[in-house]
Amino acid sequence: MAADLKPAPNPAPASPSLQQAGQTADDVTRALPHALGPEKSLLSSMLQDPQEYIGVAIEEKLTKEHFYLPAHSTLFGFLIELFEAGQEVELVSLVQRLLDKGLLDRVGGPAALTDLYTYAPSPGHFRHHLLHVKDKFVLRSIIQNSNEAIAQAYDAPDEVASLLDSVEAKILAIREGSETSKAPTIKQSIEEVLEQFQALLAGEKGAQGFSTGYEELDRKCSGLKPGEMFVVAARPSMGKTSFMMNIVEHICVDLAKPTMVFSCEMSSFQIVQRLLFSRARYAMSQISRGYKPNKGDLQRIQRAAAEITQAKLFVDDTPGISINELRAKARRKKRDENIQFIAIDYLQLMKSRTKQAENSREREIAEISAGIKGLAKELSLPILILAQLNRGPEGRTGKSLGVPRMSDLRESGAIEQDADMVGLLYRTAYYAENDEERQAEEGKANLVLAKNRNGETGDVPLTFIADLMRFETGPPAREEGA
Q1: Measuring CA to CA, which residue among 279, 284, 333, 320 is closest to residue 301?
Q2: Per-residue pLDDT at 2
Q3: Residues 232 and 346 in one domain
Q4: Which CATH number do you get for residue 51?
Q5: Domain of residue 297, CATH code
């Protein structure tokens, strides 16, 4: 029986040797950090007053992984099961239930349960002891991840960037407590689905994800949702950066959601300049033509500047940023500023510095695409990323001239596979063959929603106002008789 109460054996020391890993023989034989007294105190309080203290433990996200002693871990897990099932936690029936489940010996037998029940800690120390148990778990997690990192550093010395990204992600996960989170049960998932369904029936827009500011697009996709990757692709000069910044403006300024923009092509100054004057609806080209802003223009510019200043917008203009560096910066901003949306301009300007990607551009793009999708899920936020199309649209004829397809995505089919939504942006005036045709098509734009994992596909008609670098909902308004 006593053997069941012994702590789990220490993990094997990291290879290849104690001296190389910076460890001594004493380090290997030392017990991992633990706090058996506080663990015992927590369980005793939960046995004596389950409604009060098991509830507190759940609120504080305590899990059985936090307990060092296997017997304590098993007992805590069983208490949580009983509590969530609404069953009474009482010593005599608890012993019988554990016996029926074949778990009595694993928790130390009736004597161990009696000892815990009569331990009688001070109720006022419950949260203090809970913090002790959590702190020791963090220390054990640091040791475990450090040992793994040491071993990986020796086994794969060439994959430095990937290893650094992996180590940073694990350490941040410990800091944020995500290592203790459990995958949702089917019951929890069903409850979440039904809650969202009821919210949708009640017309609550917040249940649909973040609005893009474009009514038809919002209707088709029900907003940009956490964990989703939205790829907007176009040929050069179609206005894809303007479209991205219009959505950024709506989410960051109008909806007041902290937003991060990664711009591999334009500087931070250019991004903010474009955002400011587009929101103020003032065409910068007027200055070059000799027109000075009037009083109304200046008021709109000042108002837009004040609104953008108050918004939480973060712009990173690192050229050729690697996927690992982008992920690391996004994690930090999520931790420090709780960003809710990320926009990236654009995918083909990013890098992946793994050994496998060195000799294959297609492999490199696939790794970047998978990394972006993984980041969206990891941080639980939507990511909009721009992409370049190949010359396919220009090679088409007739009414299909300039109309893009998903197969036109450059260099990798992994992009359309990873994306939850793919929007193909184009403007028909760009492909006009003469001035008359160009004038007739002026301002017309279309976003072909070619893929939508959770909704319908189809065309989203838009109007492009070139002077303001803005896309607006619907086709251009035409005067009667025009």
Answers
A1: 279
A2: 41
A3: yes
A4: 1.10.860.10
A5: 3.40.50.300
Give the strand pairing for 229-234 and 383-388. Answer: parallel
Contact status, residue 264 vs residue 318, Cβ threshold 8 Å: yes
Q: Look at residue 414 and tell me whether its pLDDT is greater than 70.
A: yes
| CB 280 within 8 Å of CB 226 | no
Q: What is the DSSP secondary-structure string of 400-427? A: GTT---GGGBSS-THHHHH-SEEEEEE-
Residue 81: what pLDDT?
Answer: 81
Do residues 268 and 142 both lie within one domain? Answer: no
For residue range 246-302, what is the model confidence (pLDDT) as tens digits?
Answer: 999 999 999 999 999 999 888 889 889 889 988 888 887 777 676 778 888 889 889
b/e for 193-218, b at 16 or more Cβ within 10 A? eeeeeeeeeeeeeebbbbbbbbebbb
71 inside domain: yes
Task: Look at residue 196 and tell me if it is in a domain.
Answer: no
Report the DSSP pairing between strands 470-473 and 229-234.
unpaired
| Residue 112, domain extent | 2-171
Identify the top-confidence range among 283-287, 364-368, 392-396.
Answer: 364-368
- 28 pLDDT above the threshold of 70: no
Q: For residue 21, give the amino acid letter.
A: A
Q: Are residues 439 and 318 in the same domain?
A: yes
Is the per-residue pLDDT at 389 higher than 80?
A: yes
Is residue 107 a part of any domain in this protein?
Answer: yes
Q: How far apart are the first and last CA of the chain?
A: 92
Task: Say yes or no: 292 and 412 in one domain.
Answer: yes
Per-residue model confidence as pLDDT tens digits over 453-477: 888 888 899 989 888 888 988 766 5
Rounded (10°) angle between helices 268-279 and 240-249: 70
Q: Are residues 149 and 225 located together in one domain of the fold?
A: no
Give the three-class secondary structure for 480: coil
Beta bridge partners of 463: 444, 472
Task: Indicate the range of 9-18, 159-168, 308-317, 421-430 predicted with least confidence.
Answer: 9-18
Q: In sequence order, what DSSP letters do the residues of 344-386 get, joined into one string? A: EE-GGG-B--STTTTT-HHHHHHHHHHHHHHHHHHHTS-EEEE
Phi, psi of 56 (to 5 degrees): -65, -40
Question: Which residue is listed with tokens 């290997």?
Answer: 28
333 contacts 312 by C-beta, under 8 angstroms: no
**271 and 394 both lie in a single domain:** yes
Residues 120 and 255 in one domain: no
| Total of domains in the chain | 2
- The answer to whether residue 104 is domain-embedded is yes
Same domain assignment for residues 218 and 304: yes
Average confidence (pLDDT) over 76-81: 84
pTM of the model: 0.63
Residue 60 confidence (pLDDT) above 80: no
Beta-carbon contacts of residue 309 (< 8 Å; ≥ 6 apart): none
d(CA 403, CA 400): 5
Write down the residue that tokens 């450059």 correspond to: 410
